[in-house]
């Protein structure tokens, strides 16, 4: 909404210009009118939470990965982001908890990861070698609520 803010005796009055809004919306979304349909937005979200040993908050990160719809790829990318953040803040001892058993097993080199994730998992394995002490463990999704809520609220 376009707002005209007028000061009148110390009170703020807000006026909305609906006709202008409609024209502005159509101009900004002209591609939708040309295509005659709406293409769904493809995006995966990743949340990373770093806590102290006493579970108090240390760092957090939320990212969106455009054109990623495979949940395994999203989980692998989230793990990679966690490792990047660990390196950036200089963690010397870390335990990564992920709720994708496939990605955790692949990152620990206990199985082959899903084919779309192979390159990202290779990055994860390489990044783990640069950290002094690093463990990747699986937890149920129900225990990973905070990390999953980061992208929703960012």
Automatic annotation (TrEMBL):
Provide a Gene Ontology MF annotation, just one.
RNA-DNA hybrid ribonuclease activity
RNase H type-1 domain location is 44-152
- InterPro entries recorded: RNase_H-like_dom_plant (IPR044730), RNaseH-like_sf (IPR012337), RNaseH_domain (IPR002156), RNaseH_sf (IPR036397)
Matching Pfam families: RVT_3
Domain of life of the organism encoding this protein: Eukaryota
Protein name per the record: OLC1v1004758C1
What lineage is on file? Answer: Eukaryota, Viridiplantae, Streptophyta, Embryophyta, Tracheophyta
């Amino acid at each position: 909404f376009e707002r005209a803010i007028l000061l009148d005796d110390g009170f703020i009055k807000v006026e909305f210009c609906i006709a202008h809004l409609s024209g502005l919306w159509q101009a900004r979304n002209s591609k939708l009118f040309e295509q005659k349909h709406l293409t769904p937005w493809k995006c995966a979200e990743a949340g990373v939470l770093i806590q102290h040993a006493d579970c108090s908050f240390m760092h957090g990160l939320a990212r969106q990965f455009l054109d990623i719809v495979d949940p395994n790829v999203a989980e692998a990318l989230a793990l990679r982001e966690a490792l990047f953040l660990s390196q950036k803040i200089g963690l010397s001892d870390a335990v990564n908890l992920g709720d994708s058993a496939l990605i955790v097993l692949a990152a620990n080199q206990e199985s082959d990861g899903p084919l779309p994730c192979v390159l990202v998992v290779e990055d994860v394995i390489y990044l783990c070698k640069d950290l002094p002490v690093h463990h990747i463990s699986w937890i149920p999704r129900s225990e990973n609520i905070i990390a999953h809520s980061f992208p929703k609220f960012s």
